[in-house]
Amino acid sequence: MKKLLEFLISSITGSDKFSVTKESNEAQDNYVVKADPEIIGLIIGKDGKTIKNIRRIMSIKATLDDKMVNVSVSD
Predict the structure, then answer these.
(1) φ, ψ (nearest 5 deg) of residue 27
(2) pLDDT one-digit tens code per residue, 17-46
(3) Tell me, what's a Pfam family for it (predicted)?
(4) Each residue of 42-72: pLDDT tens digit?
(5) What single string gives the DSSP state of each residue in the chain?
(6) What's the predicted TM-score (pTM) here?
(7) How far apart are CA 75 and CA 67, in angstroms?
(8) What is the predicted pLDDT for the residue at 68?
(9) CA distances from 39 to 29, 60, 74 (A)
(10) CB atoms near residue 16 (< 10 Å)
């Protein structure tokens, strides 16, 4: 799932100036995307639409794998 998230973000931003870390607990997997401030706007999108859709795609993939997932963005 980490590779899927990295693929989505690199495709949207056209950049590799970000990192994805995974934090797991019993209930869910948390993915934290740390990116340069210049591309955070591209990841979040207008009114948060891009990050909502990224979360939706990740949620669908997690459902297929019987997991729960959360994606957050920081600089």
Answers:
(1) -85, -40
(2) 999 999 998 889 999 999 999 999 999 999
(3) KH_KhpA-B
(4) 999 999 999 999 999 999 999 998 999 999 9
(5) -HHHHHHHHHHHHS---EEEEEEE-SS-EEEEEEE-HHHHHHHH-GGGHHHHHHHHHHHHHHHHTT--EEEEEE-
(6) 0.90
(7) 26
(8) 95
(9) 24, 25, 11
(10) 10
Dihedral sign, Cα of residue 56, residue 7, residue 2, residue 73? negative
Q: Which two structure tokens, joined as six digits, stand for 42? A: 């591209």
CA–CA gap between residue 15 and residue 8 (Å, rounded): 11
Would you say domain 2-74 falls under CATH 3.30.200.210?
Answer: no
Residue keyed to tokens 């340069």: 36
pLDDT at position 75 over 90:
no
